[in-house]
TrEMBL record:
SUPFAM superfamilies: FMN-binding split barrel. Its cofactor is FMN. Belongs to the flavoredoxin family. Keywords: Flavoprotein, FMN. It comes from Deefgea tanakiae. Gene3D superfamilies: Electron Transport, Fmn-binding Protein, Chain A. This is Flavin reductase family protein. Pfam families: Flavin_Reduct.
Amino acid sequence: MEWPVSALTASEKYTLITDCVVPRPIAWVSSVDVLGKVNIAPFSYFNIVSSDPLIVSLSVNRRMADNGCCEQKDTALNLLSGGDCVIHIPSHDHAPAVHATGSSTPPSDAQIDALGLQFCAAQAVKTPRIQNCAVALEGRLLQNIEVGNPVVADLILVEIVHIFAADDLMHNGHVHPEPYSINAMKRT
Ligand SMILES: Cc1cc2nc3c(=O)[nH]c(=O)nc-3n(C[C@H](O)[C@H](O)[C@H](O)COP(=O)(O)O)c2cc1C
């Protein structure tokens, strides 16, 4: 099969590219809004940009607001205003919570509480990390690149300043999250 992209609808482009580019690691990102409320959301348009300095990218798409305009998602707003975040690598056990926090209808505070996520202080940033997530990357905003005209995404570069990995992931001096981490995989 071949597809000239110019003939595809938006939803066909989304389906094709996310079917082709697999697996994609999931960044489960905590951030804090201007009032101090903690937010958490998953992002699969996520990867390493540079290892020294240690920089990762998150592409946070703009979303359609009720008034028909594109607006920034809370994670982008919080990172740009607060300047830091924690990127967790979630496990299979977290899959229901990852999907709940990535829904287009954001969960209410009560639903978030029902997910049973416990947060604890991070070491180097003010955003808290999820206590029982075995890998957490604490990062500071480095740069935001507004992508597209009109803007369709905030491509946010985050410099990782502190890394947490649970002791039981350590084998021969290396972190081994693979058997445990979840990815965005091809649909069945
Ligand atoms: C597995 C998964 C991966 C996702 N990846 C992305 C992504 O890479 N970029 C994006 O903009 N939204 C992505 N989403 C959707 C966001 O998580 C969703 O819009 C979320 O509500 C954003 O929350 P926020 O407004 O609190 O930032 C993903 C959702 C799921 C469930």
